[in-house]
């Protein structure tokens, strides 16, 4: 039944006698160690049993039948999405009164058909985590890759992190908390940031072959929050970080190391309001951080820009920020959960709130961005969700979940009076083209799942409905933007490109999503498990967008165990994606009625710049540019197949190898569909094409004329579902579950991802030669190694049995007992980036630009490999009913200069400009943090 939900796990096994003969009709009882969760089952004719619907936690298993001694195992740990196997051998009643087993169960999940990775509570509690965002631990799974920062930079979207599964886009993943989705549908990333203290465990599912998995083309993360228990438990903590011990940023041109002070305090507590009946758990954290940042502008460059802006244009008197400027980050996290036992059913209700405020250090910036173009962000999330779990009979379960949630976002740049100025590859200042945005995203979700066990079949069917409403004001381009090829052009007041939005930026629409599925988990013989089923999804988009109702996805997976030490698993499935609300919002906002955009180039752009004013009305004689959806818009989806083997090495060690193929189909991209075929530019035809002074990067290259297919419009940015991607990856992993005070997970992935568009708004260099766009994806990360571990010296102070074995330690043991070491090592090959001329040199009339320098193909640039080593050292000191943890941890302990972004701007000359391919954004240097945590 672990296959049957995103919230529960299961226990299965066989009951035999000492000769190996099956024992039928044996009574199997499972009871929670810390709460009153009780489940029962009866073994079948083959001795097999399955007990599902178990929340994460520790359980005792007891098996009894007439004529045999009782069997008891009090060390069964259940995790979300996993099936734990317990094979009991019963002795005759006259031989022994009871068989008691203390050893942990096998680490192999022999019925799991999907490629998954479980992050248990020990890893969540003890591993180093720089931002206290538990989703950082998803990258402990070696088959995943972090999101390429270049995607956020090129798409002008807020860079909020994320990860890639199967080479698919970071926006194509799904996050579920307690069975309901927690996705920001505008960006495709996550919403609520729960305290790690509120998380029990979670499972990373690369692609789930059970038909219940869906809602995204990529992977999913199934998170379960902590519940209270009869025993009161909690902690209180404080984290402190000071910039004096941190490394110096590599790129910032500043006279000293930046100051930084970060304080985070929090507490959590859980227990029983009514023993065995009503439980609660509350967790809260508050962070207050003050720091400094600086741009990568030397005084000579800054002075040259200031002098140029003072001579002409609408930014007279502007001053580039030199040296440090202050940054602040404040975050409040609060969650509370109630669990009520109602006999054969249970009810869970949870409230969560996140309030996040970042000033001058919020989104989409690099070290070539002036303070004026940097941003502040304000996020406010509130959600209420519930789960009613009704065990109608030992063989029939019904689960109902609901959610009501709202996200409020306000993104605001340092300058809002506009316009913005970009000196290609040199500087960005003023009001940026994107970044000022207000939106309210409201979710109402309802789902129902029915799980029926019949013999060797576990049938499941369910349906879900989701209503998402968006009210937004996206000010993209309303301040105006001028792009200059060089500082010399800025001094001369000669921009090469101008773009501005006009009209009403406010939008208000909703979409309704529905899903239904049927599946069967069948174990025809011992050692073989089959998952097969169908899933149907429908997405009702706001008019005039079309609705594609053809979204039926088959699933099949298998797990075969030739013996107890081996599992061979694999499968195939189709996974339909969702449309990003940001893409839909572009189409709704810039439809030519509510709002439009205007573009001018070369002499026309220069004339507008030299007028020295911010425009509030469209210009006469410039045709509008709009957004629209292609006719017959299709549902994006992925086709995924995998094959792997896993081997038990004993003592909770396992080793696995897996090959995975993922193909993205009908993925989103955008083209200017109003262009005539391009022509090769020569000195002779340049004047007729509106180019007065052709540059080396234009002569001999294809450029577009100013004639349009539809003369009523200039650019028609048409969103299409015609892009695709291919991923091939091989992953090898070694894993040891936490036992005897030690655990380890290490893995290596070798992969390749190709595509022809890496995000919805990516445009091709030539819409008439789309085949030339096929290249390594921005999400392509060829090699990745990650290892994480936890080593506790001496007994585990949280384990009473361990403490009893060390009741009388000697002097040396007293010194070393209580120390804990938790390292994370990640080594990643570099990410791809797309080389650009820096201007609209092919006159495609789009922004961001897509024109590449001659002899460069799409995404042919690459950042160097990154190496990151984090270490957490903890000393536990027993105090009263609990213990005090004294912690020192460092992130990027080796102070490696890891490059996030390089400068992709080649320039317009035959030789690249000085900054081409040089770093413009680095990952954080070494950071040191201390904390005290009292746990009871």
Automatic annotation (TrEMBL):
It is a multi-pass membrane protein. Its main location: membrane. GO terms for biological process: siderophore transmembrane transport. Residues 224-286, 326-540, 548-857 form the TonB-dependent transporter Oar-like beta-barrel domain. GO terms for cellular component: cell outer membrane. InterPro entries: Beta-barrel_TonB_sf, Carb-bd-like_fold, Oar-like_b-barrel, Plug_dom_sf, TonB-dep_rcpt-like. This is TonB-dependent transporter Oar-like beta-barrel domain-containing protein.
């Amino acid at each position: 039944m672990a296959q049957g939900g995103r919230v529960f796990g299961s226990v299965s096994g066989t009951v035999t006698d000492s000769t190996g003969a099956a024992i039928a009709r044996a009574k199997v009882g499972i009871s929670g160690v810390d709460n009153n969760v009780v489940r029962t089952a009866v073994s079948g004719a083959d001795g097999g049993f399955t007990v599902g619907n178990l929340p994460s936690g520790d359980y005792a298993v007891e098996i009894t039948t007439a004529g045999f001694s009782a069997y008891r195992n009090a060390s069964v740990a259940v995790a979300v999405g996993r099936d734990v196997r317990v094979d009991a051998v019963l002795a005759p009643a006259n031989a022994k009164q009871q068989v008691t087993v203390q050893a942990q169960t096998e680490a192999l999940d022999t019925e799991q058909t999907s490629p998954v990775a479980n992050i248990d509570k020990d890893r969540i509690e003890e591993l180093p985590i720089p931002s206290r965002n538990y989703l950082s631990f998803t990258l402990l799974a070696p088959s995943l890759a972090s999101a390429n920062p270049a995607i956020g930079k090129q798409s002008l979207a807020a860079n909020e992190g994320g990860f890639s599964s199967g080479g698919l886009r970071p926006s194509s993943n799904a996050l579920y908390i307690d069975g309901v989705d927690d996705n920001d549908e505008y960006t495709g990333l996550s919403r609520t940031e729960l305290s790690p203290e509120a998380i029990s465990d979670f499972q990373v599912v690369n692609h789930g072959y059970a038909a219940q998995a869906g809602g995204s083309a990529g992977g999913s993360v199934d998170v379960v929050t902590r519940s209270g228990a009869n025993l009161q438990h909690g902690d209180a903590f404080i984290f402190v970080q000071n910039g004096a011990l941190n490394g110096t940023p590599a790129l910032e041109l500043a006279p000293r190391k930046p100051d930084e002070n970060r304080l985070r305090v929090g507490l959590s507590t859980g227990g029983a309001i009514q023993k065995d009946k009503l439980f609660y758990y509350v967790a809260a954290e508050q962070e207050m951080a003050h720091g400094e940042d600086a741009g990568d502008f030397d005084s000579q460059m800054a002075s040259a820009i200031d002098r140029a802006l003072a001579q002409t244009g609408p930014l007279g008197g502007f001053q580039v920020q030199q040296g440090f400027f202050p940054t602040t980050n404040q975050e409040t996290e609060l969650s509370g959960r109630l669990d009520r036992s109602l006999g054969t059913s249970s009810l869970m209700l949870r409230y969560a709130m996140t309030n996040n405020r970042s000033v001058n250090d919020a989104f989409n910036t690099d070290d070539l961005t002036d303070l004026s173009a940097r941003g502040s962000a304000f996020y406010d999330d509130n959600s209420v969700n519930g789960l009613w779990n009704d065990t109608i009979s030992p063989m029939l379960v019904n689960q109902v979940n609901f959610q009501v949630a709202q996200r409020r976002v306000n993104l605001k740049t340092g300058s809002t009076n506009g316009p913005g100025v970009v000196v290609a590859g040199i500087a960005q200042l003023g009001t940026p083209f994107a970044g000022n945005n207000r939106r309210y995203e409201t979710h109402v979700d309802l789902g129902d799942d029915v799980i029926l066990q019949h013999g060797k079949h576990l049938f499941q069917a369910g349906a879900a409905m989701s209503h998402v409403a968006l009210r937004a004001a996206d000010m993209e381009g309303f301040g105006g933007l001028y792009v200059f090829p060089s500082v010399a052009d800025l001094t001369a007041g000669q921009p090469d490109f101008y773009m501005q939005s006009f009209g009403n930026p406010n939008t208000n629409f909703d979409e309704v999503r529905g899903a239904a599925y049927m599946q069967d988990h069948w174990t025809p013989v011992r050692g073989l498990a089959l998952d097969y089923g169908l899933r149907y999804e429908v997405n009702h988009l706001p008019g005039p967008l079309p609705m594609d109702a053809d979204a039926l996805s088959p699933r099949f997976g298998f797990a075969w165990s030739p013996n107890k030490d081996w599992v061979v698993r694999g499968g195939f499935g189709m996974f339909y994606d969702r449309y990003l609300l940001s893409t839909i919002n572009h189409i709704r906002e810039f439809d030519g009625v509510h709002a439009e955009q205007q573009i001018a180039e070369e002499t026309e752009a220069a004339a507008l710049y030299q007028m020295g004013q911010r425009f509030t009305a469209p210009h006469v004689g410039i045709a509008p540019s709009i957004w629209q959806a292609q006719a017959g818009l299709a549902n994006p989806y992925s086709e995924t197949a995998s094959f792997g083997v896993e081997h038990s090495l004993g003592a909770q060690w396992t080793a696995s190898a897996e090959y995975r193929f993922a193909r993205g189909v009908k993925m989103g991209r955008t083209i200017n569909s109003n262009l005539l075929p391009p022509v090769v530019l020569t000195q002779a035809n340049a004047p007729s094409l509106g180019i007065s002074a052709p540059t080396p990067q234009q002569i001999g290259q294809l450029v577009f004329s100013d004639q349009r297919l539809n003369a009523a419009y200039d650019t028609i940015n048409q969103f299409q579902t015609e892009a695709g991607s291919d991923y091939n990856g091989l992953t090898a992993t070694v894993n040891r579950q936490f036992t005897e005070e030690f655990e380890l997970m290490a893995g290596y992935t070798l992969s390749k991802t190709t595509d022809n568009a890496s995000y919805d708004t990516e445009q091709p260099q030539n819409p008439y030669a789309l085949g030339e766009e096929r290249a390594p994806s921005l999400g392509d990360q060829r090699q990745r190694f990650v290892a994480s571990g936890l080593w506790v010296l001496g007994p585990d102070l949280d384990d009473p049995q361990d403490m009893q074995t060390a009741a009388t330690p000697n002097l040396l043991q007293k010194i070393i007992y209580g120390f804990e070491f938790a390292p994370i090592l990640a080594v990643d090959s570099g990410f791809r980036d797309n080389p650009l001329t820096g201007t609209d040199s092919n006159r495609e009339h789009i922004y961001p630009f897509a024109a590449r320098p001659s002899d460069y193909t799409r995404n042919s640039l690459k950042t160097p490999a990154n190496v990151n080593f984090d270490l957490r050292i903890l000393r536990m000191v027993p105090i009263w009913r609990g213990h005090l943890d004294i912690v020192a941890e460092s992130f990027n302990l080796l102070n490696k200069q890891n490059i996030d972004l390089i400068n992709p701007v080649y320039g317009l000359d035959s030789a690249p400009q000085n900054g081409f391919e040089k770093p413009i954004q680095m990952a954080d240097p070494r950071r040191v943090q201390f904390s005290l945590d009292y746990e009871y």
